Amino acid sequence: xxxxxxxxxxxxxxxxxxxxxxxxxxxxxxxxxxxxxxxxxxxxxxxxxxxxxxxxxxxxxxxxxxxxxxxxxxxxxxxxxxxxxxxxxxxxxxxxxxxxxxxxxxxxxxxxxxxxxxxxxxxxxxxxxxxxxxxxxxxxxxxxxxxxxxxxxxxxxxxxxxxxxxxxxxxxxxxxxxxxxxxxxxxxxxxxxxxxxxxxxxxxxxxxxxxxxxxxxxxxxxxxxxxxxxxxxxxxxxxxxxxxxxxxxxxxxxxxxxxxxxxxxxxxxxxxxxxxxxxxxxxxxxxxxxxxxxxxxxxxxxxxxxxxxxxxxxxxxxxxxxxxxxxxxxxxxxxxxxxxxxxxxxxxxxxxxxxxxxxxxxxxxxxxxxxxxxxxxxxxxxxxxxxxxxxxxxxxxxxxxxxxxxxxxxxxxxxxxxxxxxxxxxxxxxxxxxxxxxxxxxxxxxxxxxxxxxxxxxxxxxxxxxxxxxxxxxxxxxxxxxxxxxxxxxxxxxxxxxxxx
Amino acid sequence: xxxxxxxxxxxxxxxxxxxxxxxxxxxxxxxxxxxxxxxxxxxxxxxxxxxxxxxxxxxxxxxxxxxxxxxxxxxxxxxxxxxxxxxxxxxxxxxxxxxxxxxxxxxxxxxxxxxxxxxxxxxxxxxxxxxxxxxxxxxxxxxxxxxxxxxxxxxxxxxxxxxxxxxxxxxxxxxxxxxxxxxxxxxxxxxxxxxxxxxxxxxxxxxxxxxxxxxxxxxxxxxxxxxxxxxxxxxxxxxxxxxxxxxxxxxxxxxxxxxxxxxxxxxxxxxxxxxxxxxxxxxxxxxxxxxxxxxxxxxxxxxxxxxxxxxxxxxxxxxxxxxxxxxxxxxxxxxxxxxxxxxxxxxxxxxxxxxxxxxxxxxxxxxxxxxxxxxxxxxxxxxxxxxxxxxxxxxxxxxxxxxxxxxxxxxxxxxxxxxxxxxxxxxxxxxxxxxxxxxxxxxxxxxxxxxxxxxxxxxxxxxxxxxxxxxxxxxxxxxxxxxxxxxxxxxxxxxxxxxxx
Lengths: 501, 501
Known about the structure:
2 copies of one chain form a homodimer.
Chain A: H1 3-31, H2 40-58, H3 61-72, H4 79-95, H5 100-123, H6 126-147, H7 153-161, H8 167-191, H9 206-219, E1 227-231, E2 237-241, E3 244-249, H10 256-274, H11 291-305, H12 309-322, H13 332-339, H14 356-371, H15 380-392, H16 418-437, H17 440-446, H18 450-459, H19 469-477, H20 484-497
Parallel strand pairs in A: 1-3
Antiparallel strand pairs in A: 2-3
Helix pairs in contact in A: 1-2, 1-3, 2-5, 3-4, 5-6, 6-7, 8-14, 8-20, 9-10, 9-12, 10-11, 11-16, 12-13, 12-17, 14-15, 16-20
């Protein structure tokens, strides 16, 4: 076999894998946007079959041989080809360790779990979801054992979403956050100037909220011919290639800021995907680098831009046009303070920026306990309530607003949550660096977000998975990860909002 | 190999084929409902790859051998298994005659054609679509030559949608229609009592039209947990299995009857799929028998039920509730006459029931000419206009409202249109038989459509593809196909509406 022949086989392999991923990804996306509610069984059978076929294509000795051959000839490959081989090999090492039957069974389990979780959440019925979740946790722990039997299984899961991340680092990160943020929250509660957000709790017609989504996507320079918006229970972004990106949102009649920030958040994910390099298409290097880096981009737009005073000033005329009655007499400053009101609450995705990481800590603690086998699934509602009380001081009235609120666990994404907090911290560091080159608030106030997107494209977006998080942070900021930017940013922002001395 | 082993292989084959069909079907469905507009390229690559993989699974000598083995042992199979083998063999005979590269290329062509047609229709730009259509017609003619070189290629295409149908029969059918219906249309124009439908041309808010769709689906007893509704340019129904059915509609702000009858039409298709036998699932016998039989069910609900006076009486209170201003002072009788106004017009899907078959004849004539190679693609707009003038007496102002109006040709469905007219004729014959068992107007007036659905389930729906059209008609009506029921029905209905002597 020549290197040329091997590369041709590699392209063919990537093409086939991509086609299966596209089909499977669309089936999942459709399941939570357009599919009839009770259509999970047939979908599960199809997902099982396609997952099995996709597994067969990849997890077989020919692929192992091909990858070994290409690694031996790395000197004849371009850096991008070497990266591609390295990433595929990493995945091959993992996937080929999972028996095919278990792999297929797990795909079916996740499809079923999605339906079960949706119903359980609607009916506030945790026990109906518990057996599913139990199987998911057991499978993930077993898979972690296949991947790297010497390592702590939760570390294996964390590494899957954020290369290099482990519990030791996260323990340090979260304890740094706690040290800085807990006193800040207490000072706000004790001496902060009150924030009135009562005008946010009115009726906001869905048709107008849909028009607001269109406006926001345009403001963010999102190319609608390559990015559509759908509606779902738990908003997400997905893409099948860089020219076919989907964001989703959920409209709440009594709270238009929910969808507003959902669209800006998912829009940040979408911008990343839309601007990855063309040369990465149809390879395993297409798409965002890691979950942490992806979340840094969504949270950069949602919080550092979307919840800034400049952004509020920009969009306020549009808000007044769409909701003239509801916002009568409200000033941009009042609106800005209202959307940043610090108030410990029950729902993660509705939490303010400051208490948000505390919601993540609850989930992180629970995932650690689950992976360590120190608690049983049945205890989750109780432990959830205890942790929420401890970190946020709130009482959990039901599981719908407690342990059942997120889709991540039913989707098998254990180990994902920490990347939200890590992502926010990355974002603060990136915005600090961006601010040396650009007058970010001025651009936002002008409604000129293109230079911001371009800055991010040059330093982050274009590389897709071709670089690891630490390298991307170094390119963008000149430094390794440093959570101080995040705690400083939050302290500065919230001290100003609450007039803290 | 034992028969048991062969049957196990058959099940495995059907499962894999079904998974590919599910994925490919969803990709097409998503393309015209939720996908961003300019996402065709990546979708085309995936469809190409999946079509190739699906082709490899089916069109290979092992499958040929398996089917031959099972045919030799037909005495040991159940009637359903024999039918399954027979249908698969029929398809195997066809598909294995098409070279894989051409099969894949055609799937990609159709995906591209869909995007090109959408744009061409929007921009009223037939020349931009012509090269695509030319390739589609050429491919279909070439494929027909592979399938059955001795036969007229258009007959081969017709037979694909309606087993047994050919041009000789259709020529007779359409000439019978022309003989009865042309004088009827002329009499209406000359001496019919005028029909006022001006109140239908007002503004009908989309939100209310969406609520009407929900009401209609409930009235039709459509199980929403297994059937969702989406929005698209050219409404269609699709299903991935009997528990996952999708209908679509398009809302026109200035005409609520457009979506109303679209929902009832697609709802008819959906009822059929939802009530096919469970034992047919995951086999090639699942789903409607033929396009003609499928259209008979959609048109039975759209026209014989939906455009009946009883149906109008049933839904009128709901219409008044949703559109009180627009329908102020309108009586159910006036509404009934308005939705049945006979008026030769440009758009097939907006045509009244009586002039509708004339639209089909235009397309049938053109398809015959195209397959015979007697006209070129570039001449289509001119010939379309001439035929519309001849059959309907209308002038075609532009291609958007002419040759570009339908999605069928861009979807490769040449030979499909006649099944709409045949379906209407089947429907009239079926309703005649149903009326011997049930008081259809009384049930409709009561809003009790369940007995009608049950009657159809027993005689048509449950059999899926297990029986051919003629056998289904015999079961349902006791007779072979006879178009007289259709012409009699139209004559009776329209004479009454227009007070013809």
